[in-house]
Design brief:
199 residues, 5-stranded antiparallel beta sheet, alpha+beta, 32% strand, single chain, 7-stranded antiparallel beta sheet, disordered N terminus
């Protein structure tokens, strides 16, 4: 008899937390990409040191904000270009609602908007951001090639996949809910057994 009020209260709390989570505007996206078709920005130049760039970057941002975010670190990166594996400390991103653009990159002084010849850096740009990320360009420079960078801006040469990453709080909430429902079920079974013994 005591299980029912507990279950109702728990279900009510669960719904409230779910609604609060659903109304949050901050999202975490993992952006996976496979991009080819690179050409030199200056000629003459050596051929691209890497003809296809494959990797992923995870970012957290608010797509409904009204002001540009400052330069923000990414959550995770899995990317190697021309023998250089980028670390999370090298890669940042910036979202501008005014330009409706999202830029992810590793540039001088951590600026994702700049490319410097002769050094390892890159820029991945999307436009528009909402409702879907649309590939704009991927440009990279490599250490030892001081004359040019390499750019791909042809949509057929780019495969982009965006998947939303559940927030840690949502995962904890889901686990708590499942555990709570398990407790309710056990209490109800126990109550039924006790009632059977009384009869």
């Amino acid at each position: 008899m005591h299980a029912r009020p507990f279950g109702s209260a728990f279900a009510g709390c669960f719904i409230v937390f779910c609604l609060a989570s659903a109304n949050a505007t901050t999202i975490t996206d993992m952006i996976s990409f496979d991009i080819s078709g690179f050409v030199a920005t200056n000629t003459p130049a050596p051929p691209p040191p890497q003809s296809t760039v494959t990797g992923s970057v995870t970012i957290t941002f608010d797509p409904l904000q009204t002001t540009s975010t400052p330069i923000t670190p990414v959550d995770a990166v899995n990317l190697t270009i021309a023998g250089h594996t980028y670390s999370i400390s090298e890669v940042n991103f910036q979202y501008s609602p005014f330009q409706n653009a999202l830029v992810i990159g590793a540039g001088p002084a951590g600026n994702p908007n700049n490319i410097v010849f002769g050094d390892n850096n890159f820029q991945l740009a999307f436009k528009p951001v909402s409702p879907l990320l649309t590939f704009d360009l991927f440009e990279y420079a490599a250490s030892g090639i001081s004359s040019t960078a390499y750019i791909s801006s042809n949509l057929p040469d780019a495969t982009i996949a965006v998947s939303q990453v559940p927030e840690p709080g949502s995962l904890v909430l889901l686990g708590t809910a499942l555990a709570g429902f398990g407790v309710i079920r056990r209490r109800r079974k126990g109550g039924c057994k006790r009632q059977g013994l009384m009869h």
